[in-house]
């Protein structure tokens, strides 16, 4: 099947993305993946996620489908901390504050590129 699109010559030199290749192997029957980030699908809380998605789309669909801040929506972050503190304890709130502080410190320590100069 021929394509109506012509790729740039440099595209011929591109290598496949290694993560894509690893994930392709995990689809084979009988493969049990020990790769990080691939939880057992049977453990997904499908019913709870379906109900949550339906509630969000019924109440705030436009906001939910729009791009938001990269750190996440404030209300969602607050909800996460609140639920986590209720379930796990005060340590989660301290951890969340510690992570935010670490990120802020890393951003402040990062070198700033001067106008017109390249890294």
Query: Overall 3D geometry?
Result: extended
Overall mean confidence score, pLDDT: 76
Distance between the termini: 43 Å
Query: Unreliable segments (pLDDT under 50, ≥5 consecutive)?
Result: none
Measured by DSSP, the beta-strand proportion falls in under 5%
Per DSSP E runs of 2 or more residues, the count of β-strands stands at 0
Index terms:
119 residues, mainly alpha, 4 helices
Task: Give the topology, please.
Layout: H1 18-26, H2 46-65, H3 74-88, H4 90-109
Describe this structure in words.
The protein has 119 residues and is an all-alpha fold. It is 54% helix and 0% strand. It contains four helices and no strands. It has helices at residues 18-26, 46-65, 74-88, 90-109. The radius of gyration is 22 Å and the shape is extended. The protein starts with 17 loop residues before the first helix and ends in a 10-residue tail after the last helix.
Short précis:
This protein is an all-alpha fold and 119 residues long. It is built from four helices and no strands.
């Amino acid at each position: 099947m021929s394509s109506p699109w012509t790729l740039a010559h440099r595209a011929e030199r591109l290598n496949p993305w290694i993560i894509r290749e690893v994930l392709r192997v995990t689809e084979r029957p009988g493969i049990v993946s020990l790769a990080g980030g691939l939880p057992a699908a049977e453990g997904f809380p499908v019913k709870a996620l379906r109900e949550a998605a339906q509630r969000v789309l019924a109440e705030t669909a436009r906001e939910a489908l729009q791009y938001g801040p990269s750190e996440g929506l404030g209300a969602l972050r607050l909800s996460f901390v609140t639920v986590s503190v209720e379930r796990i304890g005060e340590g989660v709130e301290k951890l969340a504050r510690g992570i935010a502080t670490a990120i802020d410190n890393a951003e402040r320590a990062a070198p700033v590129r001067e106008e017109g100069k390249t890294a």
